[in-house]
Amino acid sequence: MTSPGPADGKTFVAANLAAAFKELGKRVLVLSADLRKPSIHRQFGVPVAPGLADALADSNGRVVVDALPTKVESVRLVPSGRADGNPGELLASPRMTRVLEAARRMADVAVLDTSPILVGSDVAPLLTKVDAVVLVARANRTRAELAQRAGDVLRRLDAPVVGIALNCSTEINMPTRRRLVRPASKRARAARSPEPSVQASSAERGRGGAARRRRQRKKAEVG
After folding, report:
1. Is residue 119 a contact partner of residue 5, using CB atoms and an 8 Å limit?
2. Is residue 14 part of a domain?
3. How many of the other CB atoms lie within 10 Å of CB of 93?
4. Is 178 contained in some domain?
5. Which residues, at least 6 apart from 61, have a Cβ–Cβ distance to it below 8 Å?
6. How many structural domains compose the chain?
7. pLDDT tens-digit readout, 83-115
8. What share of the chain has pLDDT > 70, as a percent?
9. How far apart are the C-alpha atoms of 69 and 14, rounded to whole Å?
């Protein structure tokens, strides 16, 4: 995970990505590879040192990196440690390559929180050694020209970029699609309404016939 500049939310996204993989049942290892201004150790409640920088700067032949348990189950973290030398040289060293190989064996998913790509050249060698790179930008903060520059650097490095994570974006609820029903015209309503029956019922016919017979008898009596 990297970003164009500081305060883009790179560390926040990295921590949440690790938690999301944990929810999928994965064994997750987080490496704090931001050796200048590390902060992801605070997200998981572990000390900053000893850690990655101490292991990379160790003069012994072996590279021993301790993955500490965190407050999130199934997520372990390698803190950054304290870098006394040049962070770029440490991350570009063959020892860092060995750390990445060990990380692939230790977990199903390894998430690296690195420094911003436009702040310094520390992260550049590291981005060519990983399997995937996610660029984090922050809505209403990351300027378009900085995001473009970061993309140009990643292309020049031939880094395996898999996508961009937009942090602090606002969710917009789209209106639901409704079917518009127009009121029917008078002609259409008349066509749909049942026509009145023109045939009289048998009872009505019977009553009418009796009335006619009574009138005929009265006329005969008068005559």
Report:
1. yes
2. yes
3. 15
4. no
5. none
6. 1
7. 887 899 999 999 999 999 999 999 999 999 999
8. 74
9. 17
Burial class (CB in 10 A: 0-12, 13-18, 19+), 216: exposed
Token code pair at residue 80: 């950054």
Q: Is there a domain that residue 132 lies in?
A: yes
Nearby residues of 94 by Cβ (< 8 Å), 6 or more positions away: none
DSSP secondary structure of 93-125: SHHHHHHHHHHHHH-SEEEEE---TTT-SSSHH
Answer yes or no: is 84 within a domain.
Answer: yes
pLDDT in tens, 17-59: 999 999 999 999 999 999 989 999 999 999 998 899 988 987 6
Cα separation, 123 vs 143, in Å, equals: 21
CATH number (domain holding residue 47): 3.40.50.300
Kindly list the distances between the CA atom of residue 211 and the CA atoms of 198, 201, 208, in Å, as whole numbers in the listed order: 21, 16, 5
> What residue has token string 């500490």?
68
Q: What is the DSSP string of 189-200?
A: HHHHSPPPP-SP
Residue range(s) defining the domain that contains residue 122: 10-167
Q: Classify 212 as helix, strand or coil.
A: helix
Q: What is the pLDDT of residues 149-163, one digit of tens each?
A: 999 999 999 999 999
Distance from C-alpha of 163 to C-alpha of 140, rounded to nearest angstrom: 19
